[in-house]
Design goal:
This protein is mainly beta. The chain has one domain. The chain has no helices and four strands. The protein has a four-stranded antiparallel beta sheet with strand order 1-2-3-4, with no helix packed on it. The radius of gyration is 15 Å and the shape is elongated.
């Protein structure tokens, strides 16, 4: 059975999930994409929002990457 390789970096790897932003719907978003009937938007600090077509409000998604996202 193969042993998983350990990643070596020159920086500290943060393993904590991003915080839930209470005003996520008002945050600056950097990218938006269509995924079937769903819109997926990402922003700074690991923010991910999804919205199904014709359904409000948007849903804040828990993200394990606490930094800026792009598609």
């Amino acid at each position: 059975m193969p042993v998983a390789a350990q990643m070596v970096t020159d920086y500290e790897v943060i393993t904590a999930p991003a915080l839930v932003a209470p005003k996520a719907e008002r945050a600056v978003l950097t990218e938006i994409a269509v995924a079937g009937e769903r819109l997926v938007a990402v922003g700074d600090y690991g923010l991910i929002l999804t919205r199904d077509q014709n359904i409000f409000p948007s849903q804040h998604v828990t993200n394990r990457l606490p930094f800026s996202n792009t598609f």
